[in-house]
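Ops channel
N.P.: pipeline sanity check, posting one input/output pair.
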């Protein structure tokens, strides 16, 4: 897999949990050795600490910025909402991983227009810059979420439109392959439920679960990046890659992390914008969904973009987290494989 050999790569939102794991694996050359990897984001503090982390330094003065500008890994301040900033960054790349997003459900509920600006306008700025300037970019991978499937919250609604904006861009940019990946809850990512449960167990506190029947898809950061790489390796224009992953009840996740402790669990009720079960492929999408290796691939909603003409649908109903939930013992294994700190926590408990 040398699809990225010698390529100049831009990762928008590259300081996030997914972005940092993606960057680390790009620098390892798993898809070929790129000529440059640029992290594009608006938070200079996150960039500073990410830069130090990748340089294996705990502290440094500002001169590391000048030194680092010549390295394989490069950092660029900018906001995807700013068309001129994203255009300047795109002029110097061949492949784009578009991970910039407002992704916390409550934040998007309280500030819906901010989510529109980042998640929808940001994607439109990427597509517009490539289209209006005939930029020779080969591939754009949009990072989406299961919440974009039959969305009920602002985050999901804006990510659903982000998907459509990027997929539709294939019509006007014939030399660029726009694709998306869609996945569920990333274990141990910033703001996710697993670190909260770990903290509550560590402090012998009551564990807070929304509903007894609530389920979620669970995957590691590396599995999320695997999905991105699969799209780069085998994806065609307008396709959306969905990993086949485990799903579990949230109460089982709490019990798996509790181990031998018998801490109380309180049900707090469903929060604004939450679903009881998540869906990664809807019943409407399943009839244009095929199987490719370990992934479901949703073919474009626009028929003229489909390169797979004769196909048999891989699904006959929606792909939902309510089905085939794994046991607590399998959950312990999955959680431990996903994060070394969580593995040590489970083994200790």
């Amino acid at each position: 897999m040398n699809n990225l050999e010698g390529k100049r790569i831009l990762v928008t939102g590259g300081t996030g949990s997914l972005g940092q794991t993606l960057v680390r694996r790009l620098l390892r050359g798993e898809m070929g050795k790129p000529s440059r990897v640029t992290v594009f984001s608006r938070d200079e503090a996150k960039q500073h600490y990410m830069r130090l982390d990748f340089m294996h330094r705990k502290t440094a003065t500002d001169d590391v910025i000048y030194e680092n500008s010549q390295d394989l890994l490069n950092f660029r301040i900018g906001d995807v909402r700013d068309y001129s900033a994203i255009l300047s960054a795109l002029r110097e790349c061949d492949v784009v991983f578009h991970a910039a997003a407002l992704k916390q459900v409550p934040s998007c509920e309280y500030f819906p227009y901010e989510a529109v600006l980042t998640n929808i306008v940001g994607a439109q700025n990427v597509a517009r810059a490539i289209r209006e300037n005939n930029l020779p970019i080969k591939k754009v991978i949009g990072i989406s979420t299961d919440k974009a499937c039959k969305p009920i919250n602002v985050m999901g609604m804006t990510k659903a439109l982000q998907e459509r904006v990027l997929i539709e861009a294939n019509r006007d940019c014939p030399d660029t392959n726009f694709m998306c990946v869609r996945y569920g809850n990333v274990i141990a990512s910033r703001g996710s439920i697993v670190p909260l449960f770990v903290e509550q167990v560590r402090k012998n506190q009551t564990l807070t679960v929304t509903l007894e029947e609530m389920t979620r898809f669970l995957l590691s950061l590396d599995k999320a990046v695997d999905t991105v790489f699969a799209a780069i390796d085998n994806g065609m224009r307008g396709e959306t890659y969905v990993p086949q992953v485990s799903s579990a009840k949230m109460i089982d996740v709490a019990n798996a992390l509790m181990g031998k402790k018998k801490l109380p669990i309180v049900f707090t009720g469903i929060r604004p914008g939450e679903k009881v079960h998540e869906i990664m492929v809807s019943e409407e999408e399943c009839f244009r969904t095929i199987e490719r290796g370990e992934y479901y691939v949703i073919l474009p909603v626009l028929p003229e973009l489909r390169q797979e003409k004769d196909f048999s649908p891989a699904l006959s109903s929606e792909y939902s987290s309510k089905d085939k939930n794994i046991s607590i013992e399998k959950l312990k294994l999955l959680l431990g494989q996903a994060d070394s700190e969580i593995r040590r926590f489970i083994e200790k408990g």
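N.P.: looks fine end to end. The mean pLDDT is 92.
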